Amino acid sequence: xxxxxxxxxxxxxxxxxxxxxxxxxxxxxxxxxxxxxxxxxxxxxxxxxxxxxxxxxxxxxxxxxxxxxxxxxxxxxxxxxxxxxxxxxxxxxxxxxxxxxxxxxxxxxxxxxxxxxxxxxxxxxxxxxxxxxxxxxxxxxxxxxxxxxxxxxxxxxxxxxxxxxxxxxxxxxxxxxxxxxxxxxxxxxxxxxxxxxxxxxxxxxxxxxxxxxxxxxxxxxxxxxxxxxxxxxxxxxxxxxxxxxxxxxxxxxxxxxxxxxxxxxxxxxxxxxxxxxxxxxxxxxxxxxxxxxxxxxxxxxxxxxxxxxxxxxxxxxxxxxxxxxxxxxxxxxxxxxxx
Length: 339
Prior knowledge:
Layout: E1 4-10, H1 17-25, E2 32-38, H2 45-54, E3 60-65, H3 71-81, E4 86-89, E5 94-96, H4 100-109, E6 119-128, E7 143-146, H5 147-153, E8 161-165, H6 166-171, H7 184-190, E9 194-205, H8 224-237, H9 245-261, H10 266-272, H11 279-298, H12 305-312, E10 317-323, H13 325-338
Parallel strand pairs: 1-2, 1-4, 2-3, 6-9
Antiparallel strand pairs: 3-10, 4-8, 5-9, 6-8, 7-9
Helix pairs in contact: 7-8, 8-9, 9-11
């Protein structure tokens, strides 16, 4: 069995997949499998993946949704089928440095066996295609941090190479409420455990790729139902972290705003946020949140992406083993014989 399951969720990005595959083929360790989770692509993704699998020296599992069901659903489908002890994301617009798998595994093994239960994984640096490090770590060879302390207290982003224990992701799946939900909805739940940081760039990312997921206010406001659920989860899990009155109020106002765009009723919104504030604070935030939502609508910023998710959420996902462990072994033996 492979130790790492490398997940590549993709949607209409057939042209990016050969670069992912080339980075996997160049790995100095082959102790992994590749799971491509195709979110109902309408381009030639299936043909491209089948062609790449035929030339692979590692197992390849292809998942194909019959309709566009969203990244959260496809991540969960892939994680459920992952055979590795760890999951490592390499999105379709990412690629791994050649030593990535070997370095992540050696770092995990540098943790004493008696201490590993305290950790949920390993994190390494990511950089843009221009070589700019996205979220620099502290200047240390290794640093063990409690994930929630690191991301919430230091406001550190999630753009990094993350190798996470599969069992923890299987026990805490991504909430399937929209086409996308911010990863904090899961990381904060398991983030009371430790993460070992590796101050090396092991993942490269191309920003502004086609169909890139964005949740910023710079353009359209999509995935609002997902953002509402993620906001409530993160605040609930991490409410022990000190927050200013204004920070908490701003978060609550934006939560109401997301709920409005995500067509979540006020009663359901109150239930979602019930552990994060008293009723007075919630209802006091409603008028401001609704006013901002009206402004968003007038500015034509709102995309109700959850409607597509709700229409397609029961669509089946098929799986195809395009390259198995046995076929990889036979391929290696054939290649050795040819030499």
